[in-house]
Specification:
By secondary structure, the protein is mostly beta strands. The protein is 2% helix and 51% strand. The protein contains one helix and 15 strands, in the order ββββββββαβββββββ.
Length: 188
């Protein structure tokens, strides 16, 4: 049970309307002559939908009791992504809408964390940084670097495209920050 507004933070898992949500954004707002409010943006871990909720002083919020298990990513059929738990070899599917933007960082055989709510898998979370291979990257043009940090678009093995420095070429392995979707470094 969370009793104060200050305890509601980004990344916290809570129960709202009987379903698990993760707090995507949390902003404490205190206006003159009014009681403080915690403005939040919540993402449903089952459906993937987001909503905005304001929590007022004195409201009680239940923290979601989620179990985290290591699972292997097996494959996808376009709509669902299939995983296998490492401890009991149970196979299950999670819809693409529940995974959201993380699908671009999944490749077959990856080990990820699955979140279970009431003994049912509801979502996954990939590592904060992943390594992917560049499959397509145009050559950098000489003279493009006059403005400082210059980037180009590169397509990765999972199908996503990100901005990378000019020296990255096809076949390179690069590390990506999965929270921001940005290039971190080239892997040797």
């Amino acid at each position: 049970m969370i009793s104060t507004l200050n305890d509601i933070k980004k990344g916290l898992n809570i129960i709202q309307n009987g379903e698990p949500y993760v707090v995507m954004e949390a902003n404490f707002v205190k206006m003159q002559m009014r009681k403080p409010v915690m403005q939040t943006k919540l993402k449903n871990l089952i459906t993937g939908k987001t909503m905005e909720v304001n929590f007022h002083q004195g409201e009680k919020v239940d923290e979601a009791d989620l179990l985290r298990k290591k699972v292997d990513y097996l494959y996808n059929d376009g709509e669902n992504y299939y995983f296998m738990a490492q401890d009991d070899f149970e196979q299950f599917a999670i819809g693409q809408d529940s995974i959201g933007g993380q699908v671009g960082y999944l490749k077959e055989g990856d080990k990820v964390d699955a979140l279970y709510f009431n003994s049912n898998p509801v979502s996954i979370s990939v590592a904060p940084k992943v390594e992917l291979k560049v499959v397509s990257s145009p050559e950098g043009v000489k003279g493009n670097s006059a403005q400082g940090r210059v980037t180009k678009t590169a397509e990765l093995e999972t199908g996503i495209s990100i901005q990378v420095p000019l020296f990255i070429k096809e076949g390179d392995m690069i590390r990506i920050n999965t929270d921001t979707g940005e290039y971190v470094e080239r892997v040797q």
